Model the fold of this input.
Amino acid sequence: MAKTFKALSALLSYPSGDLKAAAGDIAKVLDSEDVLSPKARKAIRPLLADMDRLDLYELQEIFVLLFDRSRTLSLNLFEHVHGESRDRGPAMVDLLETYRTGGFELAGTELPDHLPILLEYLSTRPLDEARALLADAGHILAALAERLHRRESNYAAVLAALAEVAGVEASSEMVQELLSVQDDDPEDLKALDEVWEEAEVTFGPDPNAGCPVTRDLLAEMDPHPPKARPANAEAGNI
Done:
């Protein structure tokens, strides 16, 4: 199990005071393991520096502008391959079953394909298994990294690091196909409303529980193994 995935999950979560305070601990976690290359870890340092020095509201504004107001930068991975097609539902169910088979249950309202949730799950799995699962989404990660790079965002380094772990190059055909979709304009609020007019489906058991990512991740930046919520129902196979 790699705490690196837990640290990256926290970095890709909505900024909070706890996240700001944990920036130094996150850096130590990344440097304590060899999951990321030295080059990738170095590239993430500017984002960690931002977390430490920028005002919380500024961090939150940056995050929302990137990930909440731009569908082409959505951290819900299936958005980039299934959109609103009928294939998205079964893909969600399959991913949920993968989590449950691994003894991991969602506790909040985020969708199963939300990248920080996936990374939280991967932090509970053997490294080889985590790499293989991440490779399935590698082309999406590489495309997101390139889009963020175009916007000169320090978040690009996190996605690029994940794409590197997944073994996917930005020049691959699947990545280029995703990049052929025109970027959203986050300042066009009318277009944004039209795109997001359908409410998201809630998969978490408790709509009032909130996203568990930053709450639980930052509490577990220590040598103890991560806490996966045990599945109550019988786990199925994909």
About this structure: The chain has one domain: 3-220. Confidence is low (pLDDT under 50) at residues 198-215, 223-238. The chain is about 55% helix and 0% strand. Residues 178 and 186 are 18 Å apart (CA to CA).
